[in-house]
Amino acid sequence: MHASLREFFTHWRTEIDDAVRESGVLCVAVFGADGDVRFASPAATTLLGSDPRARCINPPFADLVNAAHEGPLVFDGFLTFGQNGRADTSIKARVYRKDDEFLLIGEIDVRTLEGYYKNILRLNAENTALQRDLIREKRALENEVEERTRAEERVRALLGEKELILREAHHRIKNNMSTTIALLRLQLRTHTDPTVTAALQEAAGRLQGMMVLYDKLFRAGGAASMPLRDYLTPLIHEILGVFSGGIRIRASIEIGDIVLPAEILSSLGILINELVTNSAKYAFGEMDEGRISLAASRIDDRVRIEYEDNGRGLPESVAGATPGGFGMELVLIIVKQIKGRLTIEKGAGARFVIEFPHPSAH
């Protein structure tokens, strides 16, 4: 038997120290009047947290450390702890004071521990259920992503097939147009009748205009519109190529930044083909060299196209905007289709001015 309690604590100091430090029931804590926690067992840490001033509800921390006392014992009773003024735990405890330090000794009630364990078990169960739900959601999302990936791959494959089909169709259409133009030019060489050769040249030129537009639109990715410059510039050179065996013709082309839809470009292509063809066939006669010029600009909501050559001028049968043959009739029909206005000026050469509203003005 140990002679005294002091002898008992001295003999079992290490074991008692470990028990205090590891106990989840025994509350032992040392703190200052400013709330600085200097030692706390696990159970005391749970109660006091990092700031006993905020956790002590009844009595409040300030009342506890400032309570009047005669000996070391400052408080003996139930201490209530909580958060934001709401109590969650009460323990039977004693608080002692020595100098500027306070010693709290208490024990968490078994019923309180049972409540903690029940809460822990409930939270664990909820956490397990939540994890299962998250796993199901994750699998569902993975399946959805996988399905969408397969769908996107199918769409890409279909788009690739569509692109191949379009390229093949474009290639065949362009070849058919080129073959038809070549046949017309071949027929042109076998006829000496001016009427027949003129008809063949006009047909080849009109088909050439359609082929240039089709090719430009396809290369633009099937666009519904394109710059006027990108269409008319190569078209004029293609048309002049049809007459390459005759007089040399120089072309001056100045076209502003004008974008037009395909249907208007197609109409303008036929119109310009008629004007250029007419100049190449009739304007220059025995001249050593001919010149044509085309200028296009946009003024506010209207487009203005000016075409002229330096040939011998228009015949008397063509005056103002009066047709003098099928070609001019076709020009007037197209101008009417695009809701435009045609002005024909005669003099040293021929000059045509076409004005029409830009589609964006509608």
Would you mind describing this structure in some detail?
The protein is of the alpha+beta class and 362 residues long. The protein has three domains: 5-108, PAS domain (Beta-Lactamase, 2-Layer Sandwich), CATH 3.30.450.20; 110-190; 194-361, 2-Layer Sandwich (Heat Shock Protein 90), CATH 3.30.565. The protein has helices at residues 5-11, 13-22, 42-48, 52-55, 61-65, 110-190, 194-219, 228-242, 262-283, 326-337, and strands spanning 26-32, 37-40, 56-58, 73-83, 86-98, 101-107, 225-227, 248-255, 259-261, 289-299, 302-309, 341-347, 349-357. It has a six-stranded antiparallel β-sheet. A five-stranded mixed β-sheet has the order 8-10-11-13-12, with helices on one face. A hairpin with a 2-residue loop joins β10 and β11. α7 packs antiparallel against α9 (262-283) and α9 (262-283) runs antiparallel to α10. The longest helix has 81 residues, at 110-190. It is rod-shaped. The relative contact order is 0.06.
Question: Topology, pairings included?
Answer:
Elements: H1 5-11, H2 13-22, E1 26-32, E2 37-40, H3 42-48, H4 52-55, E3 56-58, H5 61-65, E4 73-83, E5 86-98, E6 101-107, H6 110-190, H7 194-219, E7 225-227, H8 228-242, E8 248-255, E9 259-261, H9 262-283, E10 289-299, E11 302-309, H10 326-337, E12 341-347, E13 349-357
Parallel strand pairs: 8-10
Antiparallel strand pairs: 1-2, 1-6, 3-4, 4-5, 5-6, 7-9, 10-11, 11-13, 12-13
Helix pairs in contact: 6-7, 7-8, 7-9, 8-9, 9-10
List keywords for this structure.
362 residues; alpha+beta; Beta-Lactamase; Heat Shock Protein 90; 3 domains; five-stranded mixed sheet; 13 strands; 52% helix
